[in-house]
Prior knowledge:
MetI-like fold; mainly alpha
Amino acid sequence: MDRFLKFYVYTLVIAIVLIGLWVYITNFTQWLDPVIFPSPEIVLMAFFKGMKELLQGFVSSMGLLVPSLVLSIVLGIAGGLYFGMQHRFRAIFEPFFQTFSPLPPTLFIPYAIALFPTFKSASIFILFITTFWPIFLGTIQGVLLIDKHYWDNAKTIGLKGRDLIFRVILPASSPFILNGVGISLGFSFIVLMMAEMFGADSGMGRFIQYYTDFTQYDYVLAGIIFNSIVILAIMIIFEKVKKRLLFWTNLRRENS
C-alpha cells in the first residue's frame, strides 16, 4: 500500500481535485445544465442501481471481445512468424499489408452486416480486423529485428523447425508481439463501444446508448465511469502479465 501511494500520490490528488470541482460546479453553481451534468451523488446512486445491468453488459461485451482477440493473437502470431521468416513471400505480400492495415475497420461494417447472420458474428469479425493487424505486423517486426547472433547461435547448435521457433524466435520477438497485443486491446475497446452503441441489444456501449435515448444522463455517466474502470483494470492486468512475461528484459536493463 505504501508503495502504491508513493507511486500514485499525484494521480490521486488530481482525481480528488477533479471530483471536488465536479461537486462544487454541480451543487453550488448554475454553470452546467443539471439534466446533462448531474451531481456525483446522483450518478453514484445510478451506478449502484444499474450495477446488475452493467455487469450483464460487461459479460456480453467480453463475449464479443475475447473470441476476436484470441483469434487475432493465434492468427496474427502464426502469420507474422511465417512472413517474418519467409523473406520472399513477405516482399510479395508487403504492399497488400501496407494497403489494408491502415484502413479503418468501420469501413467493413456494411459487408459484415450483409455477410454474417447475426450481430455477434459480424461484431467479432469487425473486432478481429481491428485487433489482427497490430499483432501481425508487430510479430513480423519482432522477427526482423532479432539480433544476428541469435540466428548464428541457433544455427551453431542445430536448432530447426519447432525448436527454433519456440526457443529463439518467439522469445526474442515477444516484446514486439506483446506491444502489438496492447495496441490491439486499446483499439478493440473503441470499436466495441461504437458497435454496441449502434447495433447491439446488450453490452457496455449499449447501456450508454439506451439511457442517452431516454435522456437519463445520470445513468449515462454511470456507464461511462463503469466502462472506464473496466478498461483501466484490463489494461493494468495486461501490463502486469506483459511485465511478468518479459521479466528477462527488466533483468537486462538492471545489468546494463
